[in-house]
Amino acid sequence: MLILAIILLQMEIQGPGFTLRGWNLDDAESLQKHADNTNITDFLLDRFPSPYTMDDAINWIKLMQHQDPMLTFSIAVDGKLCGAIGLELRNDIYRKAPLIGYWLGEEYWGRGIMPEAVKLVTRYAFDHLDVVRLQAGILSNNPRSMRVLEKAGFTMEGILKSSIIKKGMILDEHIYAFVKQQF
Ligand SMILES: CC(C)(COP(=O)(O)OP(=O)(O)OC[C@H]1O[C@@H](n2cnc3c(N)ncnc32)[C@H](O)[C@@H]1OP(=O)(O)O)[C@@H](O)C(=O)NCCC(=O)NCCS
């Protein structure tokens, strides 16, 4: 059991042209540089800091270094951190259906990185965690992210009307999911 935990904590997953890996403090500068971008934060939860400072980067990396099991990966291209993708476990009756979320540094957009990363994390979740479904909630003004999920094989299940307020705008949430039987 201990050995499995150590393997999961050190896990690296190779994708086409990128690696999903753990977090280390040498990444703080890259993390701060890429995450401090409203073209990214405008589509994330308000708990994601904006502006994104070096302190935010260092605190996040320290937190991520204590994950057990590994749920949130950094995305690296040529060894440099350029984004993140992760699962958020939920409690109670939702405990078998975690949420998935992600962001990528703007200079890396349009290369097909995130759909491949979503596919790899989906497989990782079903292989290593006791879950049967992954779910994502996308702001209605984010068709780029909807496309990512479609390319990764997720299904659009419904729209929660006016369920979000982001930057003072009331938006719909588009619910996408991948259920284990789809494998
Ligand atoms: C969403 C995000 C992860 C995309 O990652 P990526 O690796 O660039 O994804 P892709 O390379 O597959 O490109 C996006 C796809 O969306 C399409 N797209 C781009 N703008 C679009 C638009 N306005 N409407 C519809 N599709 C659009 C692209 O054409 C591409 O699809 P294609 O390959 O079929 O042509 C990245 O833009 C990002 O980090 N955005 C900010 C944070 C965010 O939105 N996170 C998700 C929160 S739910």
Output the keywords.
alpha+beta; Aminopeptidase; five-stranded antiparallel β-sheet; three-stranded antiparallel β-sheet; 8 strands; disordered N terminus; binds coenzyme A
General description of the model:
With 183 residues, the chain is of the alpha+beta class. The chain has a single domain, classed as Gcn5-related N-acetyltransferase (GNAT) (Aminopeptidase, 3-Layer(aba) Sandwich). The protein contains six helices and eight strands. A hairpin with a 2-residue loop joins strand 1 (13-15) and strand 2. Helix 2 (28-35) packs across helix 4 (54-64) and helix 5 (113-128) crosses helix 6. The radius of gyration is 16 Å and the shape is globular. The structure holds coenzyme A. Residues 40, 43-44, 101-104, 109-115, 136, 138, 142-145, 147-148, 151 line the site of coenzyme A.
Quick structural gist:
With 183 residues, the chain is α+β, with helices and mostly antiparallel strands.
How many E strands?
8
- Taking the alpha carbons of the first and last residues, their distance comes to 26 Å
Largest sheet: 5 strands, antiparallel
Q: Helix proportion of residues, in percent?
A: 25-40%
| Tally of DSSP helical segments | 6
Beta-strand residue percentage: 25-35%
User: Uncertain runs with pLDDT below 50, 5 residues or more?
Assistant: 1-7
CATH fold-level name: Aminopeptidase
CATH C-level label:
Alpha Beta
- The whole-angstrom Rg is 16 Å
Silhouette:
globular
Biggest sheet, spatial arrangement of strands? 1-2-3-4-5
By CATH's scheme, which homologous superfamily applies? Gcn5-related N-acetyltransferase (GNAT)
Q: What is the average per-residue confidence, as pLDDT, rounded to a whole number? A: 95
**Structural class label:** alpha+beta
The CATH architecture category equals 3-Layer(aba) Sandwich
Number of separate structural domains: 1
What small ligands are held by the chains?
coenzyme A
Order of helices and strands: HEEHHHEEEHEHEE
